[in-house]
Specification:
By secondary structure, the chain is of the alpha+beta class. It has one domain: Gcn5-related N-acetyltransferase (GNAT) (Aminopeptidase, 3-Layer(aba) Sandwich), CATH 3.40.630.30. The protein has a 7-stranded mixed β-sheet with strand order 1-2-3-4-5-7-6, sandwiched between helices. Helix 1 packs across helix 2.
Length: 151
């Protein structure tokens, strides 16, 4: 079943931060999310399931490009297609706004995420060696990925 996608607002910052904390060794604070969601250049989308925030994605737009800042799925909702659904909705909305390219970076060792992005048409543009260090004994590269949103 497809989950409804909602536009996140600054007052969603607490639950977004809580969900972010379930998937990242260095979670962002509610204040950081509130500030981001208050910016006109930031778009946050959330997937709701039974009144719970099951996943979210945050993107920042600059001119005709967008950069995915972070994406997370709640542990109880992983492997249910929520991240793919959010990303497809995001790309559709961005395309309608005239955004022509979307970019992201992902840890080299995050194979499920990389597979998801590749399946959605993202391709590797480069790498930043040793970029991801938090929560790791050995730093890993960031894989830079992007895809066109041009119609």
């Amino acid at each position: 079943m497809t989950q409804p996608v909602v536009v996140l607002r600054p007052d969603d910052a607490g639950r977004v931060a809580m969900l972010h904390g379930t998937g990242f060794a260095d979670p962002w604070s509610p204040a950081a999310f509130r500030d981001l969601l208050s910016e006109s250049t930031t778009l946050g989308l959330g997937a709701e399931r039974s009144g719970t925030l099951a996943g979210f994605v945050l993107v920042q737009t600059i001119l005709d490009e967008a950069d995915i800042l972070t994406i997370a799925t709640a542990p109880d909702f992983k492997r249910m297609g929520i991240a793919a659904h959010l990303l497809k909705s995001l790309m559709s909305r961005l395309g309608e706004r005239g955004i022509s390219r979307i970019m992201l970076d992902v840890a080299e060792d995050n194979l499920p995420a990389r597979s998801l992005y590749e399946g959605l048409g993202f391709s590797e543009d480069g790498r930043r060696p040793g970029y991801y260090t938090t929560g790791r004994d050995i730093p890993v590269a960031a894989v830079l990925m992007s895809r066109s949103l041009a119609l």
